[in-house]
């Protein structure tokens, strides 16, 4: 679906499909340089990272393995608590692997910070992070993110994997949700 198809639900369009495609290519060139001759394990965090994982993996001129994890932050508030529960664990053994976590968005950074520690403790040779989007609050937690697509304002965005109440994940672009949708 196009951003234009849900125009009334959006405050504005933030990132177009074209801009995402170009950015993914740019990120891939950097990843190819850093992982030359290696075969990283891409770990996608469900469900938001499905689109970025699919596009990133296909654009990469590297052999990769792909695996998935589903995690949930405790608590129902819109704020991440930092206490994380694994809903679906990886199928892969991480011992000696070069792991690249693929994320849709880093907001508080608390989920990612926990994930980094968790994956590192499994004996990976390296654990790095690629996130399509990053919000300013992410800077408050000290999580190193090697590959960032776009730094965006502190607003609630949907599309390209990102949902509001499970809607809008299938938008080709990314937009800022209009307040009337959630109030
Ligand atoms: P945090 O970095 O705060 O621990 O949590 C990141 C998670 O919160 C993301 O994976 C995503 O599920 C959700 N999230 C944070 N900001 C947004 C946003 O602007 N839009 C949507 N749809 N989800 C968000
Ligand atoms: Mg995510
Ligand atoms: Mg969500």
TrEMBL record:
GO BP term (any one): guanine salvage
Chain ranges of the Phosphoribosyltransferase domain: 18-164
Gene Ontology molecular-function annotations: guanine phosphoribosyltransferase activity; hypoxanthine phosphoribosyltransferase activity; magnesium ion binding; nucleotide binding
Enzyme class (EC, first level): transferase
Record EC number: 2.4.2.8
Gene Ontology terms: cellular component: cytosol
Regions that span the bilayer: none
Requisite cofactors: Mg(2+)
Keyword terms: Cytoplasm, Glycosyltransferase, Magnesium, Metal-binding, Nucleotide-binding, Purine salvage, Transferase
Compartment(s): Cytoplasm
Catalytically driven reaction(s): IMP + diphosphate = hypoxanthine + 5-phospho-alpha-D-ribose 1-diphosphate; GMP + diphosphate = guanine + 5-phospho-alpha-D-ribose 1-diphosphate
Xref: NCBIfam families: HGPRTase
Sequence similarity: Belongs to the purine/pyrimidine phosphoribosyltransferase family.
This protein's name: Hypoxanthine phosphoribosyltransferase
Origin species: Ruicaihuangia caeni
């Amino acid at each position: 679906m196009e951003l234009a198809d849900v125009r009334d639900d959006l405050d504005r369009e933030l990132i177009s499909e074209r801009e995402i495609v170009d950015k993914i290519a740019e990120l891939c060139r950097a990843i190819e340089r850093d992982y030359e001759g290696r075969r990283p394990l891409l770990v996608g965090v469900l469900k938001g990272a499905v689109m970025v994982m699919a596009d990133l993996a296909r654009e990469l001129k590297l052999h990769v393995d792909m695996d998935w994890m589903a995690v949930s932050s405790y608590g129902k508030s819109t704020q991440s608590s930092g206490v994380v529960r694994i809903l679906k664990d990886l199928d892969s053994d991480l011992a000696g692997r070069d792991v690249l976590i693929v994320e849709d968005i880093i907001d508080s950074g608390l989920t990612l910070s926990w994930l980094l520690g968790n994956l590192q403790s499994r004996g990976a040779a390296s654990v790095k992070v690629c996130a399509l989007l990053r919000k300013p609050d992410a800077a408050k937690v000290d999580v190193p993110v090697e590959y960032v697509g776009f730094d965006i304002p502190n607003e609630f965005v949907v599309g390209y994997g990102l949902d509001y109440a499970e809607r809008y994940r299938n938008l080709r672009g990314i937009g800022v949700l209009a307040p009337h949708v959630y109030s």
